[in-house]
Amino acid sequence: MGQFGVFLLLLTLGYVFGRMAESRHYRSIHKREALLRRVLVLPDKMPPIEFQQHNSTLVTGSVVISVDYFKTIAAALRGLVGGRVNAYESLLDRARREAILRMQEQARLKGASAVFNLKFETSRIGDNAGKALGSVEVLAYGTALIPQRHATA
């Protein structure tokens, strides 16, 4: 009974603290998305004609987010029956959005008005001896378009 109690305690703590951290991160994401709304981010390979005279530079945003204990257990249980792993979906959603925000912040600091050709790279880090996801890294990158009057050398 002692080991089961420890398991339930860890599961409960993982759920409570994981949800708190996730909620706090989503609040931060929503606030920064509103602030950076003026820096357009588009997956289009070629910018519209009005951006043809802009200077361009590569901008990136990278984030590593770890999986909490509850998400690991929930994913393992879901693995028994199959189906969507909602716990990991929210993890990837936060990671993608955070990576885009960091890329937008870099573009804004360079004076860019838009980022075109948005791409993502995702990788798994520290898979905990093959038993769990560990952490996920998401890299967002694209071409920042800087109006010539703001261009820096």
UniProtKB/TrEMBL annotation:
Alphabetized InterPro entries for the sequence: UPF0145_dom_sf (IPR035439), UPF0145_YbjQ-like (IPR002765)
Superkingdom classification of source: Bacteria
Record field: transmembrane: none
SUPFAM superfamilies xref list: YbjQ-like
Family membership: Belongs to the UPF0145 family.
Protein name: YbjQ family protein
Organism, scientific name: Thalassolituus marinus
